[in-house]
Amino acid sequence: MPHQIILTGDINLLGVKDPKAPFARVRQTLLAADIVISNFECCLYEPDRERSIYEEGFYADLAAGEALTDAGIGIIGNANNVNFGGPAIRSSCARLDELGIPHAGAGIDRKSAYASVIVERDGIKYGFLQRSSVYWSHGGHEATAEFPGIAVLEAHTAYKPRISETRTLTRPGHAPEIITWCEPGSLKTFCDDIAELRSSCDILICSNHWGCDHDVLQYMEQAGRAAIDAGADVVMGHGPHFPLGIEIYKNKPIFYSLGSFSFHTGHSAKKHPDWIGMMPILTGNSNSIVEARFALVRHNQKNETYFVSPADETLELEAIYASSAPYNTSFSIDGNEVVLNL
Fold this sequence. Notes:
Elements: E1 3-12, H1 27-32, E2 35-40, E3 43-44, E4 59-60, H2 66-70, E5 75-77, H3 86-99, E6 103-104, E7 106-107, H4 110-114, E8 117-121, E9 124-132, E10 149-150, E11 155-160, H5 163-166, E12 177-182, H6 184-198, E13 203-209, H7 218-230, E14 234-238, E15 246-249, E16 252-255, E17 260-263, E18 277-284, E19 289-299, E20 305-308, H8 314-324, E21 331-334, E22 337-340
Parallel strand pairs: 1-2, 1-17, 2-5, 3-4, 5-6, 9-13, 13-14, 14-16
Antiparallel strand pairs: 1-18, 7-10, 8-9, 11-12, 15-16, 18-19, 19-20, 19-22, 21-22
């Protein structure tokens, strides 16, 4: 029997007081899927002291977590730059456990942060793991053997002079080419973990928090393709708060950024009432993805996520198409959804 997987981008419940409000307008669609998997970009934590709005970490009320269960979200990835701080991560993981939501990517120690999860629905085993390449390397953010943190996939940056364009190294102010790559040891661990999970599940979803601005960087391509090579059926990327390109690699989709799903309040308490997101809807058989399409969503001043028509989002679609062009990915429109040609 075919089964349906829905993926969502960033969910941040900061400031949510009514857990039924954020997903009321998309709830029935989410509940109809066999499994919904989301990037959770906040901690369920109530600090015992006053905090500056400039301090890192998005801390939502414990009660706000009920928004996830009300919408039927079945797996959470929480390796990202705002799942920050030992007490906050302990609290958030405990609350997710209390709500009965499996989660991967952050934990009370390295073992739990790097652990994958498997959720079985109607005889299909869904495997999931998440890593972040965007984190605070100087602040004890990565989980250790004794301290809470997140699971990371380390990457590096270098700057290469554009000699072929300038014909000289002595032209002051000429912008360099930015080169990024995964740390080899970190990438190997990542791929080894995927390969190990592959033997225990039917469908494997790999999730990566990464990116900078509107570019698909080299290390993102390297990690996404390596994940597929190691056994992943789909890669869901997030980090930039807007959709990026899609690559079909070995007939399997890599979504380089899903953008926002429910993200109303961000850094420095800035409001983001209308960020757009891409919501993949995947159809699978017993052990593979056979169809991939996506819907587009926005959220309003009330922080209600709602579907928008591709016909009304031509600029956003053109940006997605342009970012996908280097991968020769082709699309077609089917009503209010965009279909990928696998």
